[in-house]
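Preliminary data (for renewal application), DQA complex.
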Amino acid sequence: MPKPIYVLSGPNLNLLGTREPEIYGHQTLDDVRGLCEARAQSLGFEVVFRQSNHEGDLVDWIQEAREAACAVVLNPAAYGHTSIALLDALKMLSIPIVECHLSNPAAREAFRRKTYVSLAATGVVSGFGAASYELAVEAAAGLAR
Ligand code: DQA
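Predicted structure:
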């Protein structure tokens, strides 16, 4: 079994399903976890699936992924637009990084058009709701092979 794909989600995504469902959909983060696990398993991978509202937790998990993961899928949520700390942590990774968003931030407010995470990401999947995560896991598995 290869090392797991780390699937990390940032602030407010714990409330997925009730949070602005017209933008982010009705599926909960647990539903998303299930989708990621199933997609990874079908490709011969496992996922480590975590969410935090705290920037430092995400930095710690990205650092952990340097040794423990074969790839990282990251939905940085709002920290993508603000966090140089996340960017710096990602820059220390030598494994694939897939940035993932449920919505399409490029089609929303101007302040969402830029993410620092994109500067370090191998690629970005956005705009497909919960399926963005599945597609991101698939891309990560393909890159990790
Ligand atoms: C998001 C988009 C971000 O702009 C926003 O701050 C989020 C969620 C998404 O998944 O579409 O919290 O990352």
